[in-house]
Amino acid sequence: MALEIPMQGIDARARELGIDLSSVDLDSINLPAGEDFGIPSDDEDLLRDEDPMELEMGFANVVVVDNLPVVPPEKFDKLENVIRKIYSQIGVIKEGGLWMPINQETKKTYGYCFIEYNTPQEAELAREKTNGYKLDKSHIFAVNMFDDFDKYMKVPDEWMPAEIKPYTPGENLQKWLADEKARDQFVIRAGTVTEVYWNDARQKMPELVFQKQYWTDSFIQWSPLGTYLATVHRQGSQVWGGDDKFERLMRFAHPQVKLIDFSPGEKYLVTYSSHEPSNPRDTHRVVLNISDVRTGKVMRDFKGNADEFTPSGNISVSGVSWPIFRWGGGKDDKYFARLGKNVISVYETETFSLLDKKSLKIENVVDFCWSPTDPIIALFVPELGGGNQPARVSLVQIPGKEELRQKNLFSVSDCKMYWQNSGEYLAVQVDRYTKTKKSTYTGFELFRIKERDIPIEVFELDNKNDKIIAFAWEPKGHRFAVIHGDGPKPDISFYSMRTANNISRVSKLTTLKGKQANALFWSPGGRFIVFAGLKGFNGQLEFYNVDELETMATGEHFMATDIMWDPTGRYLASAVTSVHEMENGFQIWSFSGKQLYKVSKDHFYQFMWRPRPPSLLTPEKEDEIAKNLRKYSKKYEQEDQDAFNQLSEQERKRRKQLQEEWEGWVAKWKQLHEEERPYRIELRDGEASDDEEEYDTKEVEVEEVVHVQEEEVPFDLDQE
Looking at residue 571, which CATH number applies to its domain? Predict the structure, then answer.
């Protein structure tokens, strides 16, 4: 923030120094090169590399529309009205901003026109929306930006080979995975500072890796595999990578960017911005760019009004339901899709165009989600015609758009879909109306995706009228947990998709009564789960072993807002962010519920574990390691013992230091006591000894009158 000084203060200071400001030529003053007066700017290099600001927009707000009908003068007005009607729906055309050149010899139009909008953004949108517009069979619009003509005219006639730059090795983006202590990293944002740490549980404290002030203007985000850290700025977004240096790898220009999203395989970055419309009656204009993460090239952009990207009406604070584009399962990044009105538009990343050049038409579709591992879309269509046409959930295979399975649902109030992270199961939570339509009850439709013909099992709780508070699949497993109930202390039930005889049928494992929890957090490796009481439950935590069906520990992080497992499932973080004014900071717990350490941070905004890529080991190799764990664990047990001994040595040194400080303090006061001995002798009338035993002790009783009360004499009438 710049320091502002009023002119009166400058004049007063000049008079004190004997300087006549009227004689000073301010224009002749040159600051020393590189002088920043102690206020460094993190964006200096960014601004220095940017193109100079253009004071005029030039012709960026002008489009050229070709392939128009060639008409005589008597049809000028009719053609102009048709064109104006089409293009005024997209933006505001300037007064006199529609011009059709005329051939002076034939007195007919040339078959093209120029349209000038108020802003370049409206012109871009006009090109996007109307290029290829079919006026009739013989006239299909070809729309280009006026500035493009100048760009293409500058292309040299002779081909020149590109300059080959020498290869310079970059930062090792996976180096952090080779940490000798097998630690995980996390990033936090507090105040204006962003910091990356190692989680050093053995030392029971975090180890700082990298720190930067004003690293981002709004938020930070890891990529799904942990390779990149993205920051967001007014000019666009940037990605950084490395082990401890975090060098800038790429910039993505996108003014006023508000949201970002990586594809699962980290190949692409989606950036989003919304802009005020020129017409107050219109909705915000949305701009979405999909860029290649490694090259920074914009592969496809989408522009339009906000309501075009929110067909279901589910508008969030940012103006849209995020993410707008949902990526297909797996890390191949081959498909992405978005929901439209009565359509699901599926795009493929080879050409970034619609799959088969057309959208998947589904009447009244309101939601869809991809399988986490396969190119399969699960979609939901609510009831139509007052219940005459039932609701349905369908599974559609991409790219063939073949319907694999469908289930009709009746009397549906609401529907939610939950994929298991291995793509083996899909749970559809269905809220249904009772016969009286005055209340609802909940059931589940469970799809077994990997089994033949995808069988579906209908599942209900023991009390189907219980309110469902939370549902969560076990990662890499076959179990799921449900929080249900209407009271202040709901129940938590566990179920398996298999029976004891390994038959494919849902079986109940246990129900835990009266838990202070409203959220479920499975360990990424399965087996362990944390019941968390967030918001109204004030941060109650319970660590539960589902294999043994027993509670390992309970804890509390007062006012906790976020719970996050590390990617290995060894540690858990609980945090209180700045939504609360007090108790900001985070705590690190072991998987079994032991609190390892806590860190307090004022104005605490974000805590994020650095994700890890999937293991390169085959399932068979993982099983072999699990069977021979004792053999492998000897090495790590020794390392743990060495770390414990190191901590013990540190504790011994700390205690020795405290003892030495105490002894030094005692010696100091003994010396002072000896220096004051002559004064004590003088005060004691020449007595030299400080030994209390050389003095006689006498007890003297002293009586002291504390209070005197006069006796009250009763008043006798007879004596009157």
Answer: 2.130.10.10
Whether cis (ω within 30° of 0) applies to the bond prior to 399 is yes
Read off the pLDDT of residues 416-454 as tens digits, 9 standing for 90 and up: 999 999 999 999 999 999 888 888 999 999 999 999 999
Strands 571-576 and 134-136: unpaired
The reply to whether 601 and 477 lie within a common domain is: yes
Tell me how many domains the chain contains: 3
**For the domain that residue 132 is a member of, what is the CATH number?**
3.30.70.330
605 belongs to a structural domain: yes
Strands 550-556 and 540-545: antiparallel
Would 619 be classed as within a structural domain?
no
Cα–Cα distance, 551 to 68 (Å, whole number): 75
Question: Do the Cβ atoms of 356 and 375 come closer than 8 Å?
Answer: no
For residue 162, what pLDDT band results from cuts at 50, 70 and 90?
Answer: confident
pLDDT value at 631 more than 60: yes
Which are the contacts of 327, defined by CB distance < 8 A and separation ≥ 6? 263, 264, 333, 335, 336, 370
Residue 692: count other Cβ atoms within 10 Å of its Cβ: 7
Q: Is residue 243 situated within a structural domain? A: no
Give the domain range for residue 134: 62-154
Longest dimension (CA), the chain: 147
Same domain, 493 and 592: yes
Residue where a domain terminates, one of 582, 614, 646 = 614
Q: What is the pLDDT of residues 50-101, one digit of tens each?
A: 444 443 457 888 999 999 999 999 999 999 999 999 998 888 899 889 999 9
- Whose CA is closest to 264, among 326, 184, 197? 326
Please check whether residues 100 and 198 belong to one and the same domain: no
Burial label for 2, CB within 10 Å (0-12, 13-18, 19+), is: exposed
Q: What is the Cα–Cα distance from 673 to 667, expressed in whole angstroms?
A: 10
Instruction: List, edge to edge, every strand of the sheet that includes 440-448.
Output: 412-419, 425-433, 440-448, 456-459
Q: What is the torsional sign of CA 119, 120, 125, 131?
A: positive
Q: Which residues pair with 585 in a beta bridge?
A: 576, 600
Instruction: Give the pLDDT band (50/70/90) at residue 40.
Output: very low
Say which amino acid occupies 582. Answer: M
Residue 636 sits in the same domain as residue 568: no
Q: Which of the listed ranges 399-403, 569-573, 711-715 does the model predict with the highest average pLDDT?
A: 569-573
Closest CA to 528 of 580, 470, 572, 469: 572
State both tokens at 634.
């000897």
Mean pLDDT, to the nearest integer, of 15-40?
A: 54
Give the model's pLDDT for residue 30.
53
Q: Do the beta carbons of residue 412 and residue 430 sit within 8 Å?
A: yes
Cα 56 to Cα 96, 98, 146, 148, 285: the distances in Å are 19, 20, 15, 17, 22
pLDDT band at residue 713, thresholds of 50, 70 and 90? Answer: low
490 and 580 co-located in one domain: yes
Query: 280 in a domain, yes or no?
Result: no
Task: Please report the pLDDT score of residue 291 as a whole number.
Answer: 95
Domain C-terminal end among 154, 176, 203: 154
- Please give the single-letter amino acid code of residue 378: A
| Residue 491 sits in the same domain as residue 601 | yes
Q: Are residues 595 and 471 in the same domain?
A: yes
Q: Does residue 467 sit in the same domain as residue 543?
A: yes
Residue scoring higher pLDDT (23 or 219)? 219
Find out whether 367 and 382 touch, Cβ atoms under 8 Å: no
For the chain, the straight-line distance linking the first and the last C-alpha, in angstroms and rounded, comes to: 92
Backbone angles phi, psi at 479, to 5 degrees: -110, 160
